[in-house]
Design brief:
single chain, alpha/beta, 16 strands
Length: about 350
């Protein structure tokens, strides 16, 4: 039977534009960072909307990865996605995009809180993300437990959430992860951003989920931050990956796979403490338009390999291809069909 992928996360409309150093400074933003907006950041969205090159894109880390996995697989009904949106035009824009892509969206709709937005500040090849979760922050486990939504869980064999969802509905993540563990399905999680590892309540959820995680994704910065949070002395990304792969795991029938991307460097994969590296697709600097969504695209490509029952090497190859396509496009966008030869 064909496998199905279910993503759960924070659906956001990306408001993306090129910005200068001055704007980053104005809002105290760092390159290649992701934060939750405070009051001082609220005028940023109007600043971005006023830019001549502004783009509105269906976003949110998990939704990005699910759309890419669906795009790579080109198989109708291969994926589904849950998260909370408002009852507004922005939600409809995202629903239309996902349905066009072939993703089955099962949004929870909030009557009074608007759809969340993410300000994507593109500065050269770097990007800084500022998120106002709004409706995305309102997702409740009761939506997951509704018969038609739990039926999607039952039908799926691979589950994916970015760590950003830890700030919203940890109980939903835990319920799905436990289901995956008990039914020998595959639960995938992304470390997402340093603050998920640094903030004590979020780190506590991460620690609770880890024994249920079959595949853990992250980048080199998050890997080092994770080691620090565990009180480890290792700073080498490969050594950290090896150690994370050997953390206790509830479903002992399959080892944990740890996948750490490193930007332009090779991807590190650890299984049972053993390390392999897999190349990315090297691109000349002048081909790189926008790195926003590159990590999400890598995950999406990797997940498309899992959907087709491929091995780690092929999953990484698909991830590298998807990442290379995304960075050559403005925003987390891509051509109509992949030009991938496995």
């Amino acid at each position: 039977m064909a496998q199905m992928l279910l993503g759960m996360g924070n659906p956001l409309l990306d408001v993306s534009a090129n910005v200068d150093d001055e704007l980053l400074k104005k809002y105290d933003l760092k390159p290649n960072d992701a934060i939750l907006a405070e009051d001082k950041h609220q005028p940023l969205y109007a600043d971005l909307a006023a830019k001549s090159d502004v783009m509105y894109i269906a976003g949110g880390a998990t939704q990005n990865s699910i759309r890419i996995a669906q795009w790579m697989s080109q198989r109708a009904g291969a994926s589904a996605y849950m998260g909370c949106v408002g009852k507004d035009e922005n939600a409809q824009k995202m629903r239309d995009v996902c349905e066009k892509d072939g993703v089955n969206v099962a949004y929870m709709v909030h009557d009074t809180v608007p759809t969340g937005v993410c300000g994507v500040c593109v500065n050269g090849v770097h990007r800084s993300l500022v998120t106002t979760l709004a409706a995305a922050n309102e997702y409740k486990i009761t939506h997951l437990e509704q018969a038609e939504n739990w039926a999607l869980v039952e039908k799926s064999s691979i589950f994916y959430s970015s760590g950003f969802f830890i700030t919203v509905s940890p109980d939903s993540m835990e319920k799905v992860a436990k289901h995956a563990c008990e039914t020998n399905k595959t639960y995938c999680l992304n470390l997402a951003a340093p603050f998920i590892i640094q903030v004590p309540p979020f780190k506590a959820t991460l620690t609770k989920l880890m024994p249920l995680v079959d595949i853990l994704f992250g980048n080199e910065t998050e890997a080092v931050e994770f080691a620090k949070s565990e009180g480890w002395t290792e700073t080498d990304v490969a050594a950290i990956a090896a150690k994370v792969s050997q953390l206790p795991k509830e479903n002992g029938s399959k080892p944990r796979t740890v996948v750490f991307t490193q930007g332009a460097e090779a991807t590190i994969v650890a299984i049972n403490g053993e390390i392999q590296t897999y190349p990315i697709v090297a691109l000349p600097q002048d081909k790189i338009v926008d790195t926003n969504g590159a990590g999400d695209a890598y995950v999406g490509g990797y997940l498309s390999g899992l959907l087709e029952g491929k091995d780690v090497a092929e999953c990484c190859k698909r991830g590298a291809y998807a990442g290379s396509v995304i960075v050559q496009q403005p925003g987390a966008t891509y051509p109509e069909k992949p030009n991938y030869e496995g």
